Amino acid sequence: MLNIGKSHERIIRKLLESRSDLNQRNNIGLTSFNYIPSSCNVNLVRLCIDRYNADLKKMFCQSDYNGRNALSFAAQNVDKGVMDLVVEMRHYHECHTELSAMKSAMIRGTAVTYFCVLTQPLNVVARYSRNQEIVKVFETKKLIQSAYPIYASRLRSKFNAATARRKLIEEFTSVMRRIFEKILSYLTEEDVKLIVGSPISEDIRLT
Predict the structure, then answer these.
(1) Tell me: the pLDDT tens digits for 16-33?
(2) What angle do the packed helices 189-196 and 199-206 form, to 10 degrees?
(3) Residue 107: which residues within 8 A CB-CB, separation 6 or more?
């Protein structure tokens, strides 16, 4: 089986180098990809993905005229490593597709993309949570779930955490403002002028 796998790899490599159409069917409706999983060679599958930049759906899921595809054709004796790799790479491509879509999709009425919500620091997303248009979108769970099924839960978790962070900061700011006002009530005008003109105040203004 190892020799057969190496033979398959040499043939596929040559086809790739000569820019052959690996989706061309033979007289029984099968493509080169139909035979790849049955060779039980993970490296061969990886080679096609890396060198051919192959579309996994076209490689393994496109049916022949009998309704068979590469995965079903090899299901009885395929190596588990091949199947795991195909599932892993398919998931990778699906994730990449969603991320690309999020980068260009701005949340309605804003200049904020879903990708920003997913990747920006929590304090930045906390500022987003003040925008009612963004809040409305995240309150409509079905909208995000249907558009980004893989990342929907992460998007919601990030936004919920950011909203909680914003509320905590607002509460903290309110407390600090009351403390500040209380301190001011004990200061004379001369005290205030002294503090404003101090080197520490100048340093704070420059930062």
Answers:
(1) 666 666 667 677 666 666
(2) 60
(3) 113, 114, 117, 133, 134, 137
Cβ pair 22, 33 in contact under 8 A: yes
Per-residue pLDDT tens over the stretch 93-107: 788 889 999 999 999
DSSP 115-168: HHHHHS-HHHHHHHTT-HHHHHHHH-HHHHHHH-TTTHHHHHHHHHHHHHHHHH
Enclosing domain of residue 114: 106-206
Mean pLDDT, residues 111-124 taken together: 93
User: 92 and 115 share a domain?
Assistant: no
Q: Count up the domains in the chain and report the number.
A: 2
Tell me: do 14 and 62 sit in the same domain: yes
**Are 41 and 77 spatial neighbours (Cβ–Cβ below 8 Å)?**
no
Residue 38: how many other CB atoms lie within 10 Å: 19
- Alpha-carbon distance of 141 to 205, in angstroms, equals 44
Q: Clarify whether residues 172 and 144 are in a common domain.
A: yes
Amino acid identity of residue 146, one-letter, is S
Amino acid at 22: L
CATH number at residue 56: 1.25.40.20
How does pLDDT run across 56-96, given as a tens digit for each residue?
Answer: 545 554 544 444 444 444 444 444 555 565 556 666 778 88
pTM of the model: 0.53
